[in-house]
From TrEMBL:
The gene is Dgri\GH22326. This is GH22326. Pfam families: Fibrinogen_C. InterPro entries: Endo/exonu/phosph_ase_sf (IPR036691), Fibrinogen-like_C (IPR036056), Fibrinogen_a/b/g_C_1 (IPR014716), Fibrinogen_a/b/g_C_dom (IPR002181), Fibrinogen_C-term_domain (IPR050373). SMART domains: FBG (SM00186). It comes from Drosophila grimshawi (Hawaiian fruit fly).
Amino acid sequence: MAYDSAGPPPDETTWSLVQECKKHSIGLIISCDANAHHSQWGSTGTNPRDHINSEAVKSKEFQIQLEKDKKNIDQKNQEISNFHQQLVEHKKTIEEKDQQISKLQNDVKKCEMKLKDLKEYPFIGCTSYGNATDVHQTSFSNYSFDAICDSETAGPGWTVIQQRINGKEDFNRNWATYREGFGSFDGDFFLGLEKIHRLTRFKPHELYIYLEFIDGKVEYARYQQFAIAGESDEYRLGLSGFSGNVLDRMIQCNNNQKFTTYDNDNDGWNDGNCASRYLGGWWYNDWCGFM
């Protein structure tokens, strides 16, 4: 058993000796040099095999430590990733809160401006004239116009924005005419998109639609919220809160639609102009539906 044998013990010579002794029933005592100068015993006189074993042990220990370090690094990276995700979510929440604060600040500013307008130019409209049913001046925010006040159809304080009672007025008008209004207060008329826009923007309004047929039948529809946008948004219609004795078609067909005239087509109908087809301006949808 040479100390520098390339193979693992026992070597071929020793193995042959053991087999021969077994064959002839001969006792055999084997002794060996177990490297008493091994580094484990503090010796410096070690052979090359001991150096190899020591390096292997150190390499294994280093590999184990590397795996532990890698696991720790992976855990830290995961913690960093989670923290980064939390930061992103917090940032998004802060941005949403900032937007809400900005909106509230704008709302407060608008309320302050409206309060200032009310102080400088108090609202005077049909609600100011009690049970009067006649033409009166409406004025607010340094803006004024005449309008019919109606206190008989649905209670006091209503401003009439459209009236069709004798069929003498042509409602197939261009955009500019619908914007300014047309007709006569003692017959058919339309108050004007710009007036209605300013009126409904200045303070909340309801809409009441009253239809009376030749046979005396009456139908009505009432909306708790009514407003139209400005000309930059083509006087888009806004309605909600329906009640009445008819099927609600205005919200179904016309709500959130832009106004259309024969010379300003804002409906979604690709094959033509709804105002030209039905000979009048309205808030038509893509299939020319109306109330």
